[in-house]
């Protein structure tokens, strides 16, 4: 499958990884939108939130525990935002489920 995040997960494409285990990996976004901008992805290919089912959804809670750990390690004690863009209206550009962990500045609401 020609998926850039699958290739990052299996090491075919280099990335600036900050965390990895058997289920997920996390790496810095190429085009950071905040002083800290990390992407956390399941290693197994899931295209988006719309492809989550009972059978593959457990990884999402693991992603959030990894986000909590990274927030501590990356000094985001003042707060942060976790975003998963889904589909065209959501602005999803890479069709492999991922969670943006953004921090290091005050976030605006609503997002654009
Ligand atoms: P989204 O638009 O929500 O699908 O997010 C995809 C994100 O992946 C964007 O923020 C891109 O900057 C980022 N991105 C794309 N290719 C890479 C890459 N090779 N390494 C790191 N981040 C990437």
Number of strands: 5
- The side-by-side strand order for the widest beta sheet comes to 1-2-3-5-4
The hetero molecules present are: adenosine monophosphate
Specify the oligomeric state.
single chain
- How are helices and strands ordered from N to C? HEEEHEHE
Overall morphology: globular
Assign the structural class, choosing from mainly alpha, mainly beta, alpha/beta, alpha+beta, or little secondary structure: alpha+beta
CA-CA gap between termini: 32 Å
- Please tell me the overall pLDDT: 97
Q: What is the CA-atom radius of gyration, in angstroms? A: 14 Å
Summarize the structure.
The protein has three helices and five strands; from the N terminus they run αβββαβαβ. The protein is of the alpha+beta class.
